[in-house]
Design a protein that fits this description.
CATH architecture: 3-Layer(aba) Sandwich
CATH superfamily: Peptidoglycan recognition protein-like
Oligomer: single chain
Number of helices: 4
Helix content: 10-25%
Bound molecules: zinc ion
Structural class: alpha/beta
């Protein structure tokens, strides 16, 4: 099944874009949850074409050929997959350490903290920061899904949301291009620290 079956088809697919769902490692969420969240902000349905749960299960969002709502200025030429996870809490007392790292230029990206208004789920544990805490099962499924999509959309460029211009968020919190190019499918390295 897919969501938003009334949506128009894309004419082209130049990018395969990886996202974080901006949830915590212990939130067992999938496409239906994100569909509910995106509808609640006024969208037609879930904006992504696919979601990979914490256990590695793939769930279809919009149909692969439908125009998505997942990356500004590129919904007409890209397909997007979101990984559940990507956030963890730090205690308020730890915040200074992260602020110092930012000031020292140890992070390449702005927006290390998630705006508290955007946290979905528990929010009383501290400050939400981005963290590439994806499971090996998720990354294995991601690699398989991208491989399938490259057969469907030959020549498409595989990258992360942050690689496309116009968005300062660190999504998906790791460098997708070298990860996909390397033969190391089950781990990622966060570039935030
Ligand atoms: Zn994103």
């Amino acid at each position: 099944m897919s969501y938003g079956t009334q949506l128009a088809d894309r004419k082209r697919t130049d990018y395969i874009v990886v996202h974080t769902a901006e949830t915590f490692a212990d939130q067992n969420i999938g496409a239906a949850d994100i569909d509910r969240w995106h509808r609640s902000q006024g969208w037609a349905c879930i904006g992504y074409h696919g979601v990979i749960r914490r256990n590695g299960a793939f769930e279809q969002g919009r149909a692969w050929d439908a125009i998505g709502a997942q990356v500004q200025h590129h919904n007409f030429d890209s397909v997007g997959i979101a990984l559940a996870g990507g956030l963890r809490f730090v205690a308020d007392t730890e915040k200074a350490t992260f602020d110092e790292a930012v000031i020292a230029g140890k992070r390449e990206m702005a927006g290390t903290y998630l705006d508290p208004k955007r946290v979905r789920g528990p929010s009383a544990k501290g400050i939400a920061i981005y963290d590439a805490n994806y499971t090996p099962a998720q990354l294995s499924t991601l690699r398989d899904t991208i491989t399938m999509l490259l057969r469907k959309y030959p020549g498409a460029v595989v990258l992360g949301h942050r690689d496309l211009a116009g968005d300062k968020r660190p999504c998906p919190v790791f460098d997708v291009k070298p990860w996909f190019a390397a033969d190391m499918p089950l781990t990622v390295t966060t570039s935030l620290l």
